[in-house]
Predict the 3D structure of the following.
Amino acid sequence: MPRRFIPALLLPLLALSMPLPAAEDMINYRQQVMKTMGAQIAAISLIARDRIELPDHLPGHASALADAAVQARAVFPEGSGVGETDALPAIWLQREQFEELIERSVTSTAALRDAAEAGDRQALMGAVRQVGMDCLACHRDFRREQD
Amino acid sequence: MAGGRALESPFGVFYSPNITPDPVTGIGAWSEEEFVQAFHEGLRPDGQHYFPAFPYTSYTGVSRDDLLAIRAWLFSLPPVDAPARPHELVWFLRWRGVLAGWKWLAFEPGRFTPDPERDAEWNRGAYLVRHLGHCGECHTSRDWLGIPRSGLQLAGTARGPDGGRVPNITPHRESGIGRWSGGDLEFFLEIGMTPAGDFTGAAMGAVIEDNTSRLTPEDRRAIVTYLQSLPPLPTGP
């Protein structure tokens, strides 16, 4: 075997020995994704309830919300449940139920984005309610109770 | 509705009973009178006292018509054969006779009577908050006997039913809901979102999912009107 292959053979070992992204960084990132979702749905709710008259902003908020919901799929990796986090161990113990709830929020935020793009206010309000129910359902079982 | 849900308290763990219409393990054999008596008087069909984990202290104010409507709905459900799990309580509560004394101290049976000085919306809100919705059962702090502190109604507590903090829902600006607009409160009861975009979880998440999100907008508004009319109180212990 030519010697120049040896480094190539060692590459997988190198990858294994590299440190995983620190749990704190993942927790911090995850909290930003969750805060983004909260900020976008709060902003959407103000416009949808005619408290703020900036309907042109709706598609932007709704698109950011739907993107963050997709990002949420990837922010609960194994090992990120330790440290300063409100994520409950149930996320990793009952993975199937948790992922089902994440998928529900991906679906409902996509419906909200579609309603916002179509300018359909009635569908929008229904979608806001559904997103709310999905957020509640997940926080109910998988987030530490807040003070 | 087949029971078995645990309610932890300083007095032990209560398990909710089967309220499907199964005639043996549920309430299928109960007459209308027996059903109403449970809510209005806190008495089982055999005359024994209920623990106030079943909040008859609030339900006593619910109208007979509303109770019979609830009974009709429960009796429309499929019966489930599920025997009740016995409560796991401290030794001095294992005999239900003790409850007669507790009820003498803490329980005043009686239906809700509207306040003629207030309008229909306020009265509807009072009925929903105090009786049908039994909000004070969690949102009011209790003394060492487990009796809600009458001077601190709905002012929250540091030690709620599951041991956690329960918020003050009087219109106190610092510790209660005094800074929330009426619209924000109605929307919270509808979808569970705080004005900052956070979503409640745990016990209130269940209340919103199963109850307040399904109310009519008029009933949610009535609840908010009533809550905003309360005296602002500092948070209870």
Q: What stands out?
A: Strands of chain B lie at 6-9, 12-15, 88-89. The mean pLDDT of chain B is 94. Residues 83 and 105 of chain B are 31 Å apart (CA to CA). The interface with chain A takes residues 164-165, 183, 187, 190-193, 195-202, 205-206, 208-209, 213 of chain B (CB under 8 Å).
